[in-house]
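Side project, low priority. Logging it here so it doesn't get lost.
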Amino acid sequence: METTNGAGHPLPYDTYREAIERETLHFADVARGMDPETAVPSCPDWTLADLTRHVGALQRWFSTLLTRLVQEPPRSRELELGLPEAAREYPDWVAAGVPAVAAVLRDTDPRAPMWAWGEDQHARFWARRMLFETLVHRVDAERAVGRDSGIDPVLAADGVDEFLVNLPYAGLFAPAVTKLHGGGETIAFQCSDHTRGTGEEWRVRLDPDGFRLMPRPATDAVPSEAQSVVRGRAADLLLLLYGRRTYQDDAFEVSGDTAPLDNWFAHTAF
């Protein structure tokens, strides 16, 4: 599948580094003191203990990749996690890993070439990816324990961008993505926030041989009409793309043909 990065530039590297620390500690605070066997509805068959273990393990794994600046896909994901025996201690274990993760991110040149499964073959890919893995799972945890969730609109808009830029490469672990195609239909995801440049739009085209993120039109250009349009706040769009919301929710204004949307969401969950 071909892709062209039609969206904006990623945020500054330090923004990711600082946000990862905040989001990780926030996640740990949400999970701390809760029943580890609490079901996580947005992660089927997972308990809060499973989710917490996943977040901590993934951060340690990403940190290992960054430390080694790996140049090819790892053959093994075996890693000494130091996981506590009691699941109730998992949140403290996640929080205890924050200084080490922060040190790795601080000491890594974000422009260093390295292997990544997505579009950007540099160390900065993993910081951006780590942030949105952590942020979305923080929302998962909050929903599981009945708490309200808030997402910074600037981070959310960047998360939408990160998801769409990298989705064409996600067949490695989400094989349904490789079967996403169409007849030239265009889907527009429109961000209704207009704070600090987050009033953005991303367009994807479904072609017979796959799909691609379309390049941004010139500022003075009149964009062609999309067959399907979903408009909503950046935070809601982010959760929509990650399968935590549906486009039928009241949070979205939907216009045009919904068949391309059904095709899209049937193939993009991971």
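Brief comment: The chain has a mean pLDDT of 92.
Revisit when time allows.
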